[in-house]
Amino acid sequence: MTATPHFTGDASPYGGGDPYADYRTADFPFTHLVDLADRRLGAGVIAANDEFFAERENLLKPEPAEFDPERFGHKGKIMDGWETRRRRGTGAAEPHPTDEDHDWALVRLGAPGIVRGLVVDTAHFRGNYPQSVSVEATSVPGSPSPEDLLAPDVKWTTLVPRTAVGGHAANGFTVDAGQRFTHLRVNQHPDGGIARLRVHGEVAPDPAWLSALGTFDLVALENGGQVEDASDRFYSPATNTIAPGRSRKMDDGWETRRRRDKGNDWIRYRLAAQSEIRAVEIDTAYLKGNAAGWATLSVRDGSGGDWTEILPRTRLQPDTNHRFVLPEPALGTHVRIDIFPDGGISRLRLFGSLTALGADKLAARHEELGG
User: Per the confidence metrics, is the pTM higher than 0.85?
Assistant: First the structure.
């Protein structure tokens, strides 16, 4: 396995021009996975011990951090991130903070799940980033308050031990915890600023909740659906097609580059568990001159074997939500949508319910992950 790239030390002071020109980043092996801390899934930064210079909510903004060299406020430079004041010691004789002094923020994941990797992004924090960071995780049911999470009986698992980080850099960490978590505690030692936090992993839904729903969207991210592969991710990620809600703009869906051959584009999904699909929605919202022309839908039961077509090649209209009731339930664990010849869709919804076998496997997995 290739080691995760690591950055340390200051970045150079901003010298004008493109502030991202000297930004340090890398291709991390986990960033294709869903961001469990995506606000579209319901994530939030519910508490922080200090946010004097910049508010904690900035951590989970979906877009990259921005930098305006001329933007100052009453408290000083306004940064697009979470930034705490400078820590001090106990007095003139001991002016420096102790080794244990640190700032923290509590993050509620939008969807409970298995964390596979984190990015602690210090973009534009060049000389005011934390010396090191650490990240812990816990699993607490319901909607706990900050006081509930900070209670002495709550067990926290270390995902990232205290590790030196770099300024103006995407600091990536591979995680191998193998448990289901609901909340994180992000610590910066001793103080400073973090622009963004990304928590990549796999959604692990609550089987009791899905059982109570009965019929639900079997491929939705929040219910445990996943994109396994796609033919093209040139303009936007295929994962957008199973994100919550309707698309709000063109790049909130999936769009491929223009094909100049006779092939077609596709996405392969894994459902929450073995299911029976009874109804389908294919939405092309905001894709007007670049929507897919036609689509087919196929299903298979298991990770191998033949695909069975459940929706024949069907004409799609631009900027339209298409609904189809299947003539009979389609049983399977995986679904593939093929679009012809290229273009995009904004959302795919597959409505149905788990089979008895699917429900049992999901419950066993939930118990295995400590749910």
Answer: yes
